[in-house]
Specification:
Structural class: mainly alpha
Strand content: under 5%
Distance between the termini: 37 Å
Radius of gyration: 19 Å
CATH superfamily of the largest domain: Clp, N-terminal domain
Number of domains: 2
CATH class of the largest domain: Mainly Alpha
CATH topology of the largest domain: Double Clp-N motif
Largest sheet: none
Amino acid sequence: MEHLLLGLLHDDTGPADAVLGSYGLTLADGRSAVVAAVGASEHTTPRHIPFTPRAKKVLQKSLRAAQRLHHTFIGPGHLLLGLLDEDEGVAVDILVRLGVDPEEAGRRVLAAIAATGATQEAPPSETTYSPPRAAITRANARTREIAGQLSQARAAKDAAIDAGDFTAATAMREREKALLAERAQIAADLQTGGETPSPSTSPE
């Protein structure tokens, strides 16, 4: 399954890239996380690489996701939905460690697919709000900023703890909580049509 994840990160177009990018994830991040989780093989890669049972299960779930959306193809967005629907596995563990909430990400994928105009009319139970492309662009930009600010806040918090400065550590923890809350609000706004602030006017 980790190879499917790397493939999705390698694709720089479409809803899967938009959603993974909204969490600030890059192909380099994915490769590093996969190597840390399973290691790198020194053997020559065979010409034919069979699917593992878990990978086949993900593909089956991707097919069902496409069918629910009345699609006649399986694209990167459907593959990501299938991957996120797995309760366990290396790929899901990696995404969670990198700060991705599977349920929230699934909602973002559905919204991103709808925004591309590639969906056909879905049953009422599958209907989701379709945010404008500009709103998704703003949300992705701000979420990337938040990812960088979270890294800085966490590093500063750890440094303060190491130095015994617990007042500063508490302040950085509050900053971290505020950033996480803002990221969650951005995701909620995409679902309900709320206004996502422009990155240039967002609080630092």
